[in-house]
Write a structure and sequence with these properties.
Number of strands: 10
Strand content: 15-25%
Number of helices: 7
Mean pLDDT: 83
Helix content: 25-40%
Order of helices and strands: EHHHEEEEEHHHEEEEH
Radius of gyration: 19 Å
Low-confidence stretches: 246-274
Largest sheet: 4 strands, mixed
Structural class: alpha+beta
C-alpha cells in the first residue's frame, strides 16, 4: 500500500468519513490496543456483538492514532458535556489525550462501522443503519415529524416505507449526535424532510444552548445500508468518503515544532498491517 496524505483533515472545514466491516475476530495485538474498559464492554456482550464492537473500536483507534501520530493504545477518550443537562456522561465523544482539535463521531450497525473526523473542534455526527426487515408503523409516529410521517404513509410498498424511514432516521440521529444531545431529545422535533437524492439539506435544531444549524447529507456506504452525516452549517466544506482500509502504521512525530507542524510532518506511511486484518 502506498503512502497517502490525509493531513487535509486539519485544514479548514474538511471532513473525512471512513467506513468498513468487521470480518473476523481481532487478534491479541489488536485487542491490546483497546482500553481495559473497552475490553470489559466487549466481554459483557454476546460473541458476535463483542467481535463487532471490538473491531470497530480498534479501527477508530488506528485511524485517530494515525492522524495524531500516537500509538492506538495511547489514545484517551472522554465526552463533552451535554448542552441540555450539562452531564458529561452522554455528551459527544472526544479525544482527551493527546490534546487535539480533531472531532469525531462513530456509528455501528451489526458488523458495519462509520467514522467521521473533522478539525477545528467542530461538531460532527454520523449515523449508520443496515436494512433489517421490521414494521415501521408502530415506531414512525414516535420519531417522525408530521411532514415526514405524511411522506412515509404515501408509500404503499413495505420496502419503500422502510427506505423512507431509514433515510429520515439516519439524518435525525446524525443531527442529534452532532448537537451533543443524543437520543434523549425528541426526534420528532428534528425535521429532516427533504429530497431523497442525498443532496445537502439545511436543518435547524434548538437545544438549551440555543439554535444550531446543520448541513445534513446522505452517504453511500454500500448496498443494504443507510448513512448520514451532520456538520455545522458554517463549516461544512469538502467531504472525503474513504472506503478502503487505511494504513495502521504510526506516523512519526517528526522534529519539534508547533502542534500543527507535528501533525503535518509526513503523510501516512506505508503499512504491512491495516484495518483489513480485523
Amino acid at each position: 500500500m502506498s503512502a497517502e496524505d490525509f493531513s487535509d483533515v486539519f485544514d479548514a472545514d474538511v471532513t473525512h468519513v471512513w467506513w468498513g466491516t468487521v470480518e473476523r475476530q481481532p487478534g491479541p495485538d489488536a485487542l491490546a490496543e483497546l482500553s481495559a474498559a473497552e475490553r470489559a464492554s466487549a466481554r459483557a456482550m454476546t460473541e458476535e456483538a463483542g467481535r463487532n464492537y471490538t473491531g470497530a473500536h480498534v479501527a477508530v483507534r488506528r485511524i485517530l492514532g494515525a492522524y495524531l501520530g500516537t500509538p492506538p493504545a495511547g489514545l484517551q477518550f472522554g465526552r463533552r458535556r451535554c448542552p441540555e443537562c450539562g452531564d458529561a456522561g452522554h455528551g459527544a465523544p472526544r479525544v482527551t489525550w493527546p490534546v487535539t482539535d480533531l472531532s469525531h463521531s462513530l456509528s455501528r450497525s451489526g458488523p458495519h462501522w462509520l467514522l467521521g473526523v473533522t478539525g477545528g473542534d467542530r461538531r460532527i455526527g454520523v449515523d449508520l443503519e443496515q436494512v433489517l426487515g421490521f414494521d415501521t408503523q408502530p415506531v414512525a409516529p414516535l420519531v417522525l415529524s408530521d411532514r415526514e410521517l405524511a411522506e412515509l404513509r404515501r408509500e404503499t410498498r413495505p420496502t419503500a416505507r422502510l427506505a423512507v424511514f431509514l433515510r429520515y432516521w439516519t439524518r435525525k440521529e446524525a443531527v442529534l449526535k452532532a448537537s451533543g444531545v443524543g437520543l434523549i431529545a425528541d426526534a420528532r422535533e428534528v425535521d429532516v424532510h427533504g429530497p431523497d437524492d442525498g443532496g445537502p439539506l439545511v436543518v435547524s435544531h434548538t437545544t438549551a444552548a440555543g439554535e444550531d444549524t446543520w448541513v445534513v447529507e446522505d452517504l453511500a456506504v454500500g448496498p443494504g445500508r443507510y448513512a448520514a452525516i451532520a456538520r455545522e452549517a458554517a463549516a461544512a466544506g469538502p467531504l472525503r468518503l474513504i472506503e478502503r482500509p487505511p494504513p495502521a502504521g504510526r506516523r512519526p512525530a517528526g522534529p519539534a515544532g508547533t502542534e500543527s507542524d507535528v501533525k503535518r510532518s509526513t503523510p501516512w506511511p506505508s503499512a504491512t498491517l491495516s484495518l483489513s486484518t480485523i
